[in-house]
């Protein structure tokens, strides 16, 4: 490792994984953790490569390994079978921009101003972006000697000073915001129809390479395939040193596009076609790592930035047994697939441990041999005790924010709702609850039965934990509402 690393990443050896076999076996009910390398670094002497792949608006129930009956996802299912499948993994927010901010900074989005009072995400006329003072995972890992690349959707500010290349990424190929922005169709009923029969020229979305627009409008039909090709190229180019690849897919966010090779492939219709192409793209990454003999020194994570956009009906995904979808603080809005694959190091299994996408920040830094920044509150916790079998699950709580407001809070198996509201024209109407609703997510993951009346102690414990969380939350000025020149 270079000597020029910042002090945010002091070298810290992880304990040998072998001492922790029993713990993981107890958690997962499966197998044994693999031995660490001679250095004690899991996976060998070199810090592991980190690959984080996200889908956009993919639901908990959209993968074969999460129970979808007919969308075929063999590559993701292989990740699940060979790695760990998390059943209580969350995006940290129910929509794109705040979710991505939390993943990359390890902080709840209120701390970085990544929310609004009127706007829920960044738009093409937004005047702000992720503040420069935030430390992203790319910056932390680059300081630790990693090559860093992003292939995919950014959505944390499209003005030059906010682009990925200003936030720790050496390279970027992708689009700056959502694929349904920059409309070229006047607002009105025609827009909804266009979403179901899309053409790439309906949206003036750019494709960027580093800081230059290289294509506009983006040919969205080939975007998933091109992301896969770019990801493979990045891995091939950086095979000889530790690398961090962040691969946030643009799909299956509406409007749905897929390449000719996937048109009509899935019995689940166009949504299934799109997921099956993303699965193919994941397979390209996995197979490249195996071909280059990098699989045993690479952690690959797959998750989604929020739940399914169910107001688009069959063109939105499925949250499976979970309630509601994108934009809400019901489980379907934020509980998403969480797959961790690292052959020889992560013991295969299914875990019910609670995890958040913002935990990937801390986890990746620790696995890289460092420690999370100590000069600011970090909400992400290190999940490696579960991944490596070195200890118990570190997270007991989950905070569910909508915009800047705490709507719900989970402590262990119980979740209290202080406010409930549907989204995108779907019920329920906003309702404030005092006393809060209480759901037992263990017995009732679909949030059907309010059990507050019969469980006053459990309700009091969740409320107390939520109050403690609120007391520790620092809130920055919201930045999503600031407008700039278009
Ligand atoms: Mg999204």
Would you write up a description of this structure?
There is one protein chain. The strands form two sheets. The protein has a ten-stranded mixed beta sheet with strand order 6-5-4-3-7-1-8-9-2-10, with helices on both faces. A four-stranded antiparallel beta sheet has the order 11-12-13-14, covered by helices on one side. It has eleven helices and 14 strands. A hairpin with a 2-residue loop joins β5 and β6. Mean pLDDT is 92; it is low at 1-40. α6 runs parallel beside α7. The protein is an alpha/beta fold and 486 residues long. The structure holds magnesium ion.
Q: In summary, what is this structure?
A:
With 486 residues, the chain is α/β, with parallel strands linked by helices. 24% of the residues lie in helices and 17% in strands.
Number of helices: 11
Name the CATH superfamily classification of the largest domain: Alkaline Phosphatase, subunit A
Small-molecule binders: magnesium ion
Low-confidence stretches: 1-40
Number of domains: 2
- Give the second-level CATH assignment, the architecture of the largest domain: 3-Layer(aba) Sandwich
Overall CATH class of the largest domain: Alpha Beta
Strands, count: 14
N- to C-terminal separation? 43 Å
Largest sheet: 10 strands, mixed
Structural class assignment: alpha/beta
Which radius of gyration do the C-alpha atoms yield? Answer: 21 Å
CATH topology grouping of the largest domain: Alkaline Phosphatase, subunit A
Major sheet strand order: 6-5-4-3-7-1-8-9-2-10
| String of helices and strands | HEHEHHEEHEEHEHEHEEHHEEEEH
């Amino acid at each position: 490792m270079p000597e020029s690393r910042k002090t945010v990443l002091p070298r810290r050896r992880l304990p040998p994984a072998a001492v922790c076999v029993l713990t993981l076996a107890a958690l997962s009910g499966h197998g044994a953790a693999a031995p660490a390398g001679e250095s004690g670094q899991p996976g060998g002497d070199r810090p592991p490569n980190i690959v984080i792949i996200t889908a956009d608006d993919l639901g908990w129930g959209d993968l074969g390994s999460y129970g979808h009956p007919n969308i075929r996802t063999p590559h993701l299912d292989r990740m699940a079978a060979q790695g760990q499948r998390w059943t209580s993994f969350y995006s940290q927010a129910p929509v794109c921009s705040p979710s991505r901010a939390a993943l990359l900074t390890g902080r709840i989005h209120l701390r970085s101003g990544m929310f609004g009072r009127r706007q829920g995400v960044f738009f093409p006329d937004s005047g702000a972006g992720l503040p420069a003072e935030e430390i992203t995972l790319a910056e932390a890992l680059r300081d630790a000697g990693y090559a860093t690349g992003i292939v995919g959707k950014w959505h944390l500010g499209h003005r030059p000073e906010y682009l990925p290349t200003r936030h720790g990424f050496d390279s970027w190929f992708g689009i700056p915001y959502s694929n349904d922005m920059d409309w070229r169709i006047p607002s009105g009923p025609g827009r909804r129809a266009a979403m179901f029969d899309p053409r790439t020229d309906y949206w003036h979305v750019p494709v960027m390479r580093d800081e230059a627009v290289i294509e506009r409008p983006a040919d969205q039909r080939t975007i998933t395939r091109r992301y896969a090709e770019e990801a493979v190229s990045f891995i091939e180019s950086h095979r000889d040193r530790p690398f961090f690849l962040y691969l946030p897919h643009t799909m299956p966010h509406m409007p749905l596009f897929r390449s000719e090779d996937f048109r009509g492939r899935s019995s689940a219709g166009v949504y299934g076609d799109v997921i099956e192409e993303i699965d193919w793209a994941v397979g390209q990454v996995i197979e490249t790592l195996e071909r280059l003999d990098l699989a045993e020194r690479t952690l690959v994570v797959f998750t989604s930035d929020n739940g399914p956009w169910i107001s688009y009906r069959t063109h939105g995904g499925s949250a499976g047994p979970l309630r509601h979808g994108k934009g809400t603080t019901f489980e379907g809005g934020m509980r998403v697939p969480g797959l961790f694959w690292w052959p020889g190091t992560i013991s295969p299994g299914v875990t019910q441990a609670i995890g958040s996408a913002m935990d990937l920040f801390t986890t990746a830094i620790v696995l890289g041999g460092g420690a999370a920044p100590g000069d600011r509150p970090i909400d992400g916790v290190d999940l490696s005790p579960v991944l490596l079998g070195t200890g118990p699950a570190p997270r007991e709580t989950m905070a569910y924010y909508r915009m800047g407001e705490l709507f719900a809070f989970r402590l262990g198996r119980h979740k209290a709702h202080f406010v409930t509201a549907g989204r995108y024209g779907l019920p329920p109407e906003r309702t404030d609850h005092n006393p809060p609703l209480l759901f037992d997510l263990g017995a009732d993951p679909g949030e059907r039965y309010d059990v507050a009346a019969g469980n006053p102690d459990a309700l009091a414990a969740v409320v107390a934990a939520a109050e403690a969380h609120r007391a520790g939350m620092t809130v920055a000025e919201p930045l999503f509402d600031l407008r700039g020149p278009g």
